[in-house]
Amino acid sequence: MKKLVIITVILTSTLAFIAPPKTIRLFNGNDLAGWHADVPAMDTDMLAKTPFIIRKGMLVSMGTPGGHLITDAVYENYRVRVEYRFAGVPGNCGLLVHASTPRALYKMFPKSIEVQMMTENAGDFWCIEEDIAVPDMEKRRGPKAEWGINGDKKRRIINLTDGSEKPVGEWNTMVVECVKNSIKVWVNNDLVNCGYNTTASKGHIALQAEGSEVEFRKVELTPIVKLTGEACDVVK
What whole-number distance in Å separates Cα of residue 6 and Cα of residue 10? Predict the structure, then answer.
């Protein structure tokens, strides 16, 4: 009997060890449970309304007033998958990872690394009081003397591809993997960016309201322990 108990414990432990990580629905399709909005205009304008709403089972960023929808929880070592589209016209939005101090830049943007969703620029990195390195850094970011993480410094790191996005009105899938100090990004299955030596390795996840109406039908997170494919410092 004792041997049977021991075998059962071992099998249970082994199955628990090899079981695939469970995917978390950050957006549940019904409400904004697990999120909070930071919209500076709502501090002083009594008529200002939150730009983040639920419509027909979708999370919608109305674009204005500008701000961010931020997870209550802090995450590290994960894959986040979002399915999004611009509702009618091309525009701007972003997925922020490793977000921390609110309104750290221009009294609007939280300290973070932004993964750009702007039409024709999806997958760019923007450094917001945090930093990241990529291969061919000067080619993709500009002269080293002008790099920076705030103000008018060169904070944008251009992505690796053209034509990865679908036409406006169609659904795009963006996958972002964050493991330790690396970030890897795919848009519609194309590898579009890969960075390393990030100055943060955990934080909140945020979605932007930045001037354009964007619909999200899926926002999911899966814990992971390593990046898919090659390390970022060898990706060309």
Answer: 6
Main-chain phi, psi angles of 119, to 5 degrees: -50, 130
**What's this model's pTM, rounded to 2 decimal places?**
0.91
Query: Residue 157: which domain range?
Result: 22-225
Instruction: Give me the CATH number covering residue 31.
Output: 2.60.120.560
User: Considering its fold, how many domains does the chain have in total?
Assistant: 1
- Distances in Å between the Cα of 152 and the Cα atoms of 75, 117, 118, 158, 234 are 29, 21, 19, 16, 29
Phi, psi of 12 (to 5 degrees): -65, -45
DSSP 165: S
The pLDDT tens digits for 196-235 are 999 999 999 999 999 999 999 999 999 999 999 999 988 7
Q: Is residue 12 part of a domain?
A: no
The model's confidence at residue 18, banded by pLDDT at 50, 70 and 90, is low
User: In the chain, helix, strand, coil percent, each to 5?
Assistant: 15, 40, 50
